[in-house]
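Exercise: predict the fold of this chain.
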Amino acid sequence: MIDLYNDMTGEFLGPITEADLKVLVDALEEESTEDRDYFIDAATIDVIADGRATEHVVGLLRTALGTSDGVDIRWERHGEP
């Protein structure tokens, strides 16, 4: 299992599956092969909500975004520091 966090606050957003992570990795820009954080805005969520991402992931991202213009999220495999 993979855990999503708000990168700025450290707030736990929720768990996602390997398939969910693949959608994020495939759809979002990575700065390096070791990159585990992404900037998310409403347009980004709309792009992956076209059927690629599960409703669960879309809901987590929309909740993380809230009313802000954008938010940085990061992922960690469950049990990793």
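Check your answer against the key: The chain has a mean pLDDT of 88.
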